Amino acid sequence: MKHILACLLFGISALAFCGGTTSSVKPAKSIIEIWVWGGPSQIDTFDPKPAAPKEYNGGYKAISTNVPGIEISEFLPKLAKHADKFSIIRSMTHGTNAHETATYLMQTGRWPGGGVTFPAIGAVIAMEKSKDYHGTLPPYIALVINKGRFSENGFLPECYRPLATGGNPTAARFQVDGFVSPGNLSPERIAGRRNLMEQLDRMGHEAPGIRVLQEFDAAGKDAYAVMEGEDVKAFDLTLEPPEMRDRYGRNFLGQAMLIARRLVQAGVPYITINCPGWDSHKKHFETMKQKTAEMDQAFAALLEDLSEKGLLDSTLVWWSGEFGRSPKIDWQEPWLGGRNHHGKVFSTVVAGAGFKGGLVVGESDEFASAPVKRPVTPANLLWSLYELAGVDPSKPLPNPKGLDVPILPLEGEQGKLIELYRDPNYKP
Amino acid sequence: MSFSWNLRGLIFCLGLLLLSCHICAVSPAQSALAGATGVNTVLYTDWQRENLMSIPRADDATFLRRVRLDLTGRAPSVEEIEQFCGDESPNKREALIRRLLDSEEYADMMAMRYAELFRVKSEFPINLWPNAVQLYHRYLREVALQDKPLRDVAYEMLTASGSNFRVAPANYFRAVADRTPEGLAKATLMTWLGIRLEKMPAGSVEKLSPFFSRIGKKSTAEWKEEIIYTEPGEGILTATAPDGTRYSIDTAKEDPRVVFANWLREDKELQCSKAWVNRAWYWMLGVPLSGDSPDDMPIPTKWGGPSSGKLPELNEKLLTTLAKDFHATGGKMKELLATICLCDAYQADWKTAPVLQEKAEKHFAVYPVHRIEAEVVVDLLADLTGHHEQYRSVIPEPFTILPEGTRAIEITDGSISSATLDAFGRPPRDSGAASERNNAVTGSQRLYLMNSGILYKDLEKLAKQQLSKSNKKVEELIDACYLQVLSRRATEEEVELIKAYTRELPKNDRRRAVAIDLLWSLVNSKEFLYHH
Question: Do A175 and B453 touch (CB under 8 A)?
Fold first, then answer.
């Protein structure tokens, strides 16, 4: 979508600070965020503890991967075949167990407070990439719902708010409400009706001198650019071969992941897949069996597919929840085998673009309850994501309140994931 | 005997007469009318000088829709339009304004405006929690409904002590993201004086925050309940009001909050009254008198405000004239709104000759066109189609689910929203700043109005209803659609255009097609989306 003038100017002023680079590593063109909403268990995904007692690991084992020395949970057999494509951070930590605060931290790198809401990484990337992005779709797209206002555009202009597509990716025909003309009308009728609407525009005809009304017409142009453009076809999964749809899994997550790949091909700078249902307080393992099976298939298919299409070098993928889950399983009523929130240590996965695959950063203790080696904060993680997307996180974040703030708190740099950089000297 | 009875009767009648005269003399409509006359004098002096006297008043239908939306967030019903436009009494506009101000619907609309200013929200970055949200919102709605003088409201809030779940105004000090004395000083300056503390002279924070330095907070066994109280102190505390008045407060005997509340009550420079006048003007006309943003009232020079950056003379005069009356009533919002709605800046038509338009807008000689608030747009659509979205919270648990049919303007909690409300720029109620509301028109809003599948289905249903009601001529259908969507009749030219369009449609489906296409076109018109 073309942005309104104000947003454009805002973006240009934001871009004035961009520098160049001569590294062999190119900044990521697109970022896919797989948001494991509610907090996935670190033990039951990427930080298994097979040696721990059953009250911690539930009796579930670890399996080896295609990278010697790296083991992940037996819940993720398909991903185990692609461990060379991703790296695991097992020492993510922020210490808070509240969903909203933890989400805000993971999305902005900052603790809440001070009366301002900072923009989430997706909104900042959308703004920073606006110079190079000429697609008609919004620059930040959420499949299919948003996480909530505190992890959206914050104080940045509206045009950087994530567009929540709505809809059901498993439907026979996935559609973004509003992007296509409703009612199955003929193109002639649609054109005729538009003409009628314009003819009946009494305010526009009677008072062409009213400036605020020009905004309405400009917004209309933006809207028609989306409807009539080619990019909107990115959402049309019927254009994918059925085998490809099967490969990702014929479920919400699998199909959403496939749409994300199509959006990458359309050049959309930031796509987030908000995967609900990981807040497994009750009957944790029953939930996990279903959730991890879908995640395993979809995430593995995405990495394989991006790699086959030569897109993994220009696409950065990160997988995380707002926190992990408590190591000790609660078998009491009413939890019946539940795990609670755990912000002290959890696992995050990164892949693609300037990141090396097949590595593990940090380490948690024998129960996966606390980091014992190389703690990584949300700001450290985000620092690396920004850098490898070609954005300097220390540059000022333009804001209407005239605050003098960088994109991330500067202490985030100390502890960035340098060991995962394909080019350790890489700077945006 | 009979004589004395007659005499008594006569005296009684005289008394009644006097009493009723007395009631008349102070009755709200009368004083609002007098206020409007005062405002008009200011306006006419300016308009005469600027040659803007010739712009007519808005016609009845336009005025009805305008004032209905501004005061109650609803469009007039078809019966109401017919009744009002056919009414020939000379003071019908005044009577309408009075009737609307006394309605429950007005209380809903004003409660939304107050809830925005007072940051009524259960979670992030304001943490009132649902219990307190309900209590605080109900209190604010009562303030609106009963027209409680805002001077008293200020005093109640600033001096409130007790549980935030039981004493509604005690939430004033809880509903602030930064709850340090500095943060509370900042919020108070913004809420009650319309000034950003950052814009005050250096050192103002340190001078003002001691007033709020003795506020104690303690939690109880009830989850998220908090008791607000004044910590008893020893010794003398020095605090300085924004106008420079220094207070030495004996903290063993006096509550610094009370000292500040009393200072504010006096409102010597009328700054508090002006801040409310500015907001009321902004609510009714969509532009503040204070310039670009309703959050930035000019700081009086006596308070150390810059001598430059003064307001245009007209704006300053309007602020002062209205603020004097407002102060005299003790801060009665209904009075103020009635005065504004009765004055000619509000009654004026929204358009004039293109060459004059910009100048006329600057001088309030035309009603400024501006986009309708997110909640009101969504409610208008819901009223039109009879389909209200059901609102529920996403945070915090346990979730709040509002009853079916709840209007968007009635949503108590800033933490409850919807994708559509967000797209239309509903404010998050984080800071109390009016600038949080985003009234820009965006591509996604237009996509929603043109293409939303849900909305379109609702419109198709509405088209069917219209067809079953007016099964005769196409003119009747056109009229019905215009009245329902835009609160007016179609012009002859419009009728001709639509008839011509109808002739182009396939014969077998013509009536159904024109009904839906017309409704769709009107919902997607500027006239629908803008206050005018």
Answer: yes
Q: List A352's β-bridge partners, or say none.
A: A316
pLDDT of residue A299: 98
Give the Cα separation of A403 and B225 in Å (integer). 34
Contact between residue A109 and residue A408 where contact means Cβ atoms under 8 Å apart: yes
Of B369, B443, B521, the CB nearest to A219: B443
Model confidence, pTM = 0.86
Predicted local confidence at residue B211, as pLDDT: 97
- Report ipTM (2 d.p.): 0.90
User: For helices B271-285 and B181-193, what crossing angle results, to 10°?
Assistant: 60
For the cut 80, the answer to whether the pLDDT of residue A16 exceeds it is: no
Within its chain, how far is the Cα of A126 from the centroid?
12
pLDDT bin (cut points 50, 70, 90) of residue B30 is low
As for how many domains chain B has, the answer is 2
**What is the residue-wise DSSP string for B173-219?**
GTS-S--SHHHHHHHHHHHHH---GGGSPTTHHHHHGGGGTTEEEEE
Amino acid identity at B240: T
On chain B, the residues whose CB falls within 8 A of the CB of A192 are 501, 504, 517
Q: Pick the closest to residue A38 from A121, A90, A102, A122 (CA basis).
A: A102
Q: In the structure, what pLDDT confidence band is assigned to residue B473 with cuts at 50, 70 and 90?
A: confident
Helices B28-50 + B2-26 axis angle, to 10: 40
Residue B215 is part of which domain span?
149-164+177-266
Give all domains of chain A, ordered by start, each with its CATH number.
5-174+236-420 (3.40.720.10)
pLDDT above 70: residue A75: yes
Of A112, A213, A227, the CB nearest to B369: A213
Quote the percentage of chain A above a pLDDT of 70: 94
